[in-house]
Design goal:
73% helix; mainly alpha; 3-stranded mixed β-sheet; single chain; 274 residues; 6 helices
């Protein structure tokens, strides 16, 4: 029964740790591939939603401006009506004035009210012009928002279709990745995540390909390759900092002579130098 109990991440051998790290990398790479399939669609959907929200706010502002301008027009028309009533009243009073002073006073009041009416008529005309401009702007906003909503429906449909096709697979991969993370000691997992975050392609663990790092493709010295194949310690690329594993551990088949010939050739070179 004791054998069935899972080992603590700290009790695992270096080889087991490397296998778990590489397996985690494979799962996360597959998740990244699913995200790539979605492409820019999530961002495009978000941009359209933001644009629609902006247009909606703009429409509300325009409607508010139109209401305010129409209110101003009604108020100015009301002022004109009151002014006209006063003008008529002052004109009737002019027939009963007793002297020039009273006549001039009434004339000035009538003149002031008529000027005020002219100003109000001018302001009403300007308001009506602005209302027309706002109505035109409002029509354009409604057309734009309708176009954006149509585009959004199309993009959402495309995105939902891709998500539907990959959702089950992604959830399975995320669960497997989560389980693998539990088999990796926190310090090592933290380093893995840091390397992955800083790499452009999300690769934190790579295998040696043609004597080079599978991440940055810089050459890996023969002795370092030998250390990697022994799986006795965790080795990182001296150029990009990625964790290196040998192809066999990664499940990649490499002809035996390719692994043996190059170190042998390098040893011959060393003898010549000696």
């Amino acid at each position: 029964m004791a054998r069935e109990k899972a080992k603590s991440p700290t009790d695992l051998s270096v080889e087991e740790k490397l296998k778990n790290l590489y397996s985690l990398q494979v799962k996360l790479t597959e998740i990244d591939h699913i995200k790539t399939l979605r492409g820019e669609l999530p961002l495009e959907v978000q941009d359209l939603e933001d644009e629609i929200e902006g247009l909606t706010i703009r429409i509300e502002k325009i409607n508010s401006d139109i209401v305010a301008m129409k209110r101003e027009v009604n108020e100015r028309r009301g002022t004109i009506e009151v002014n006209n009533m006063n003008i008529e009243r002052f004109k009737s009073q002019m027939d009963a004035v007793r002297n020039n002073r009273e006549y001039d006073s009434l004339s000035k009041q009538i003149e002031y009210l008529e000027l005020d009416n002219q100003l109000n008529e001018k302001k009403i005309g300007e308001c009506n012009e602005r209302v027309e401009q706002k109505n035109e702007e409002l029509r354009n906003c409604h057309e734009n928002i309708q176009e954006r909503r149509t585009d959004l429906d199309i993009k959402k449909s495309e995105l939902d279709e891709i998500i539907a096709e990959t959702k089950a697979e992604e959830e399975k991969l995320r669960e497997e990745a989560k389980n693998l993370e539990c088999t990796i000691e926190p310090r090592l997992l933290s380093a893995f995540k840091r390397i992955r975050k800083n790499s452009r392609n999300g690769l934190a663990v790579v295998y040696v390909q043609r004597d080079a790092c599978g991440g940055c493709f810089n050459k890996v010295p023969p002795q370092r390759q030998l250390d990697i194949r022994t799986r006795k310690k965790i080795i990182v690329c001296e150029y990009c900092g990625r964790i290196l594993v040998d192809p066999e551990l990664a499940g990649v088949k490499v002809e035996a002579k390719n692994l043996e010939d190059k170190p042998r050739r390098r040893r011959v070179v060393k003898r010549r130098e000696e």
